[in-house]
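Repro case for the chain-ordering regression, as requested:
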Amino acid sequence: MTAAAHPTLDALADRLGDRLVLPADPQWDAARSPWNLAIEQHPAAVATPGDVDELRALLDAARADRIQVAVQPSGHGASGTLDGTLLVRMSAFDGIDVDVAARTARIGAGVRMGRVLEALAGTGLVAMSGSSSVVNATAFTLGGGHSWFARSFGFGSSSLRAVELLTADGRHRWVGDADDPELMWALRGAGGAFGVVTAIEVDLHQAPVLTGGRIVFEGTDAAAVFRATVAAGRTAPDTLTLHAGAVRIPDVPQAPAELRGRTIVAVEAVELGESAAARAALDTIRAAGTVVLDTIRRIDVPALTTIAEEPTDPSPGFGWSVLADLDEEQVTRLVETWESPDAQAVMGLAFRVLGGALAAPPARHGIAGAVRETHIVSGHAMGVPALAEASRRAFEALDAALGVAASDRTFCTFLAPGVGYSGAYAESDVARAARVKATVDPEGRFRGNRDFT
Ligand SMILES: Cc1cc2nc3c(=O)[nH]c(=O)nc-3n(C[C@H](O)[C@H](O)[C@H](O)COP(=O)(O)OP(=O)(O)OC[C@H]3O[C@@H](n4cnc5c(N)ncnc54)[C@H](O)[C@@H]3O)c2cc1C
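-- result from build under test --
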């Protein structure tokens, strides 16, 4: 579809200047690209509205030109479904307002998680944040969001108090449970297509003392360290979160010379507090291999996003993940499969220990509800076309290695491109969310990165 097919949108170009990018513009390719460079998307136009008036004008233009509106702050979760849409970036909505006494924060829809945590430095409070600094706080929360603190407080969406929302009828308002409980239920985990969220209000949680860091082991220790982490996770306090991972650093010039061709095995840990029980759990993991680096220490809130040392620049990636109940035998099989010649395309293998509050009904009702499985397992590969088929086969092999331990679901924020919400939630819940969508957006004006299938 060309820009000429959208006369109303084109007519906004003078008013919006470089806040509306059309296919003929020189910055088009940069504007349309998502963070995950493995995903191609071909929207009709890309807008970065400066305020709600501009957002409303864009929505009106999309309606007049009969195209859908898709909000994508950055595109870690890009799924390739946004062709022909008006793609909206939210970077101008960049306010953060922290109320320390009330333990709440209002966060603009353009704000990344790293900035939220910086705003909380020294307050003794944390927001529900995941492992990456560059993930958008609103996108994370609307997708459920698995946080370092999930074992204490459940999904990130369970801490969502209210949203400021522009709906298809042109209304812009704050919505909470007292206004529309059914909409809030759907927004807490499947929230990408009910309107444009311009800000969220979230609970902050008390964290006077935070401990965190990573323990790095020799590359040959993966199976032993994974087994020890599974065992430690069974009895660890809910205040302690454990992630275990192994990464094969490719032998390519882009990788640091000293790491090329090596395997890094690491356990990342965050504790809300500093307890003897957590220290004992970490000591059993340390004893499972040869420790080459140990950064576990007291940390301030902003340091949460540095623990996992995840990439912050856009990069291409293929991913796979599944909720599972791991035991020592399964985790051993998983590592053996990952180390086999058949799975060499998969660069990283990881799992996170779940349980605690995540296994209980959420504090605030939402489609992202209790998770029965004890772990989430994931793999990632470089998202280059030459590796697509080998990665797909390797992910299948990893899934098969888990056998009956694997479920058929994952977290919404970890869903692979092209998979609908039923890859994360029960079909009856997806149908319920679809009914909410039909009520609030009867023309289907908004398009999320997931379908209600
Ligand atoms: C390195 C890395 C680390 C990660 N760590 C974690 C983690 O620890 N825990 C976890 O749960 N996930 C994690 N993720 C996954 C990430 O949370 C998802 O990809 C999620 O989609 C957010 O990505 P994003 O901020 O780029 O949002 P986008 O991909 O830009 O947006 C995702 C979707 O959210 C909806 N949306 C976003 N903003 C709005 C809005 N203002 N109004 C309406 N709808 C909106 C849209 O449907 C949009 O397509 C990680 C991803 C990466 C790449």
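Ordering looks correct now. The chain has three domains: 7-88, 96-206, 210-412.
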